[in-house]
Amino acid sequence: MTPSKEEFEARLRQIGAERYHDRHPFHGLLHGGDCTPDQVRAWVINRYYYQHSIPMKDAAFMSRVEDPDLRRIWRSRIEDHDGTDTNEGGIRRWLRLAEAVGLDPDYVASCEGVLPATRFAVDAYVRFVRDKTLLEAVAASLTELFAPKIHAQRIEGLLQNYEFADDSSLSYFRNRLKEAPKDVAFGLQWVLDHADTAEKQDAAAAALIFKTDVLWSQLDALYGAYVDPARIPPGAWQPGEGLMMQRAS
Ligand SMILES: O=C(O)c1cc(C(=O)O)c2c(n1)C(=O)C(=O)c1cc(C(=O)O)[nH]c1-2
Predict the structure, then answer these.
(1) Domains of the chain: residue spans and CATH
(2) What is the ipTM score, two decimals?
(3) What residue ranges line ligand 1, CB within 6 angstroms?
C-alpha cells in the first residue's frame, strides 16, 4: 500500500532533520563567530559556485518540462538569481557579500580557486536534475524546506559576530527568506501529488538524500581544506589571493 501524503511528507522532513547541512560543524563555526576572515572568504568563494549553478540547474529542469504552467511557475527561480529590470538578483547580492569580506567580486565570479570537491558536488546536482525524472528533480530541490531556518540563523549569527555583516552584505539571505517559501510550498505540493506510488515516494526520498549529500560534501571539502587539517588541494584558493586591494595595486 502507498503511504499517505502525510506519512510521505513526514518522511521527507525526517530526512532534513537528520541530514541537512545545518548540522555540519562548519556552520557551527561560521554562525558562532569562530571562523577566521580567510575561512569566511573560502566559504563565500565556494558557495558562489553553488549559487551560480542554481539557475543553470533550473534552466536544465525547464528545458525538459512540457507543461507551460509548470514552466511559468518555475521560471521565477531563475529570475530570483539572475535578476530582472527591477530586481538585482541573488548572484549580484552574493557578490556584494564577497566584496564586504574583502574579495574582488570579479575573482569570485571567475570561479577560479573553487575546491575540486565543490565542483564535483555541484556539477553532480546539475546533472542529476538534467538526467533524472522530473519528480526526482523537484524532490531534490526540497532541501529548501529547511533553508529558511538556516538563513535566519546565519543572519543573526553573522550580524552578532562579524564586522562585515550589515543589511547590504547580508541582503542575499534576507531576500531568500522572502523568495524560498513560495518555491518550496509549490515544490512540496507537487512532489506530494506526483509521488503517487510507493516506488515514486522511494525515488523522491532518495533524491532528497542525494541533495543533502551534495550540500554536506561541499562543507566537508571546505572544512578539510581551510579548517582541519587545513590541506588546500592544488589549484584551490590560497589566502591572500583574489582580494579587493590587489585590484588597486
Ligand atoms: O544557505 C543555504 O543553506 C541554502 C541551502 C539551499 C538548499 O537547501 O539547497 C539553497 C540555498 N541556500 C539558496 O540560497 C538557494 O537559492 C537555493 C536553491 C536551491 C535549489 O536546490 O534549487 N537550494 C538552495
Answers:
(1) 5-231 (1.20.910.10)
(2) 0.93
(3) 54, 141, 143-144, 147, 150-151, 176, 215
